[in-house]
Design goal:
By secondary structure, this protein is of the alpha+beta class. It has one helix at residues 87-124, and strands at residues 5-12, 21-29, 38-47, 52-63. It has two domains: 5-63, no CATH class; 81-125. A hairpin with an 8-residue loop joins strand 1 (5-12) and strand 2.
Length: 125
């Protein structure tokens, strides 16, 4: 990785019916990824593969999961956890309350239907 580079090409839109044109290129050395997992650099933009320096710089941020030179090591962390013992009990109580509410509403509407039916049968006689 010491000699590897990431080559970035910058293009611009030439026109409506024209193809895109290359404005310049920039290169970032990837040697820093062996020690750290991020690279944040501002590099110069060149025309025609480092022959003529264009006016401008390109800010580059590269981030990988873990540095390439590091070996995986596991760490033992002791943490305190919050345990809720009554969670199932609380959920069951709410479910029972919900079922009772539905039962009472059904009973109420059923009784209204019976009363309404009785009143209509008296009117029809």
């Amino acid at each position: 990785m010491n000699r590897k580079e990431l080559k970035l090409s910058i293009f611009y839109r030439a026109g409506l019916f024209r193809s895109d044109r290359q404005l310049g290129t920039a290169s970032v050395k990837l040697a820093g990824l062996e020690q750290t997992s991020t690279i944040h650099e501002s590099v110069d933009v060149y025309e025609n593969d480092h022959k003529k320096k264009a006016e401008g710089k390109l800010e580059v941020k590269i981030r990988i999961k873990e540095a390439l030179g590091q070996t995986k090591s596991s760490e033992l962390l002791s943490q305190k956890w919050l345990v809720i013992d009554r969670f199932e009990e609380i959920v069951n109580i709410k479910l029972i309350y919900f079922q009772k509410t539905i039962f009472y509403w059904n009973y109420f509407f059923f009784s209204l239907l019976i009363v309404n039916h009785q009143q209509q049968s008296k009117l029809n006689k």
